Amino acid sequence: MIEIDEISKLYDGRAVVDRVSMQIPASTITAIVGTSGSGKTTLMRMVNRLIDQTSGQIKINGQDITGTQPHELRRRIGYVIQGHGLFPHQTVYDNIATVPRLLKWDRAKIEQKVRELLALFQLEFDSFARRYPHELSGGQQQRVGVARALAAEPDLLLMDEPFGALDPIIRAKAQSDLRDIQRKLGMTILLVTHDMDEAFRLSDRIAVMNAGKLLQYAEPRTLLTHPADSFVAEMVGQAERAFRLLSLNGIDAIAEDGQAAGAALPADLTQREALSDLLWSGRDAAPIAQPDGNAPRRVTLSRLLAAAAER
Amino acid sequence: MIEEPDQPPAPFGKRKTGSADLIKQKIDKLGVVIALIAMPTLLFVPFVTFKANRIVQGQPVWVFSALPTWAAACLMLVVIAVLVSAILKAGVLVRMTAACLGLVTVLIAIGLAASFLTPEGNSFARVSTATGFWMLLFAFAMLLIDALARLRPRPLARILLLLAGLALLGLLARIGVWNELSLLKEFSSRADSFWREGWRHLALAVGSLVIAFAFGLPLGILCYRVERLRAAILNVLNVIQTIPSIALFGLLIAPLGWIAANLPGASELGIRGIGAAPAFIALVLYALLPIVANTVSGLVGVDAAVSNAAKGLGMTDGQILRRIELPLAMPAILTAIRIVLVQNIGMATIAALIGGGGFGVFVFQGIGQTATDLVLLGALPTVALALCAAVIMDALTELATRARKEIATA
Ligand SMILES: Nc1ncnc2c1ncn2[C@@H]1O[C@H](COP(=O)(O)OP(=O)(O)OP(=O)(O)O)[C@@H](O)[C@H]1O
Ligand SMILES: [Mg+2]
């Protein structure tokens, strides 16, 4: 749990982060969104003391962060930046082993951890451990960057536009991998992004910032249904909000018993994807793929439309 | 590893081309230039200079009168063979072997010429190298350098080649090939002082590099960390660089003299207004700019995302410097060390002007006595030392930076 209390950062008397308060529950993903220059990076970098706050207080698990030496605090917090910042003169192995070595883990434990992380990120130990960053693709570099941040098993991970440099397909894969890994390891993630879709796809809660102020910090659904003001409404996308709402839930929530014609939809589709499929194929209903022997189920256009208007 | 120059495929329209195109394809331009230097040199430029004694004006002697007929014929044949392989696009290994063969032949020929021209039992007569010898050497050296550039040997191979070359020269000297040459006579009459000044030369060049590095690296780091100091310090070092060495020696006489007179123990350490101390200090001062400037530019060149990530992961400032920034700046720093070493080896010659010793002693003695060979006795080893330092440092830099390539594809 991270408690941010009335935190401000002033540069030359100008508030870049202006009395922001938020409470981030443990084991959740929070996305910070906002226009460029709204103070997202500054807010995030105050959490691991890369920037010192002008006023206010930040507590992690009840402890004030100013009570720890900055470098010791940072070793307990994972940090990923855009462009990953891998050390070009060190192998993948050495990059990932950075924080464990700073913490003076023993060799065997470090090697075990590196193996475990490479496996988690689907990178073959034998072929990747000894490579240098320039011998990796952009997507692989990005995964190594996240693996490096997770090496010392931090329970807080800060990510500043971690997927900004990836192409859309690799980015979608990286996002779902991150979600899976977060579920598996259970750490808290604070993530800055420019990509609204990414924020909705990944996060449990979204913080919207503008000009240093936190406008709203809420669950994605609340942001769509009850935006705090017109800026938030515009940020989450007036024109798209019905679709965004649908993308938050799976089709099982509105599935009903019954038959339908045509190709079956995979059971893990979001409602938005199902709607798109029905519109595209011109059907009123579609069957949902079921394990053999189960009663047939389907999703209907009318139920989807009702879900989109639900608030 | 061997890179043959690409031959462009003949365009379709010109399939049935005449001999002109064929010649163009088969002939190496550099080879032609080398041949145009070597052949006229061999025929028309004096190969050695003969003097009845050390003082008198010398007479030029051409290859065919400087060597016994058989030797002149051999030299002629070898030169022609080498030039043919240079002009026709022979394989790069063939060209390299030919160049080495040419160099060794010319080097042996100069020795033969010396013993051929020196009358039996005459210890006054002097035979010195003349323009023709140097031009032939230059032509074949160009051929060798070109072959090496195309061969692109790996760093260790380059050092081995250098050692092999030195060993070959040592062997030829050992056999006594050049014993009758004036240069060697100058050497043997002062062999002791040659080695003494040689060591001193090295000590001046390498010692001042070590000291300059010891001061320059921290200074460079300071300039990097404290941006306000950067311009000031670099400007001061720049100004020092522009002071002529003689003027710098002059400027150092007074303060060093004062230190020697007033600081107990200073004069026992050899600190005086003239001599090795001011020469050493001048070399250190000149060396500071390349070291500091390259350290700064190496450190500034480190990707901000990289040092940012290092900090974010919890490295202390010292750890970031030692583990990230300095290793990444290493290529630039090694380049500075190479520059300074080569520069120092050359500049240490000037130390002799104020009694600082080194190979310059022979150069300035030679100038005083108008004895060209004595000048060469000082100059040749200096050039050789600088060349060796450059080859070795380049190889070491390449070895040290091979694994530290920047992210080229990001
Ligand atoms: N060291 C600094 N000194 C003065 N002003 C700064 C400093 N760092 C940031 N700022 C200002 O603070 C404001 C917020 O910067 P910040 O980097 O937090 O924005 P951001 O929301 O992360 O923007 P982006 O989306 O473009 O990354 C900007 O107006 C920036 O110019
Ligand atoms: Mg930012």
From TrEMBL, chain A:
Signal peptide positions (record): none
Q: Report domain ABC transporter positions.
A: 2-236
Family matches, as SUPFAM superfamilies: P-loop containing nucleoside triphosphate hydrolases (SSF52540)
Q: Does the keyword Transmembrane apply?
A: no
Q: Pfam families of this UniProt entry? A: ABC_tran
A GO MF term: ATP binding
- Keyword annotations from UniProtKB, A to Z: ATP-binding, Nucleotide-binding, Transport
InterPro entries, per database record: AAA+_ATPase, ABC_transporter-like_ATP-bd, ABC_transporter-like_CS, P-loop_NTPase
PANTHER family (alphabetical): OSMOPROTECTANT IMPORT ATP-BINDING PROTEIN OSMV (PTHR43117:SF4)
What does the sequence similarity comment in the record state about its family? Answer: Belongs to the ABC transporter superfamily.
Q: What name appears for this protein in its UniProt entry?
A: ABC transporter ATP-binding protein
Which source organism does the UniProt entry give?
Rhizobium lemnae
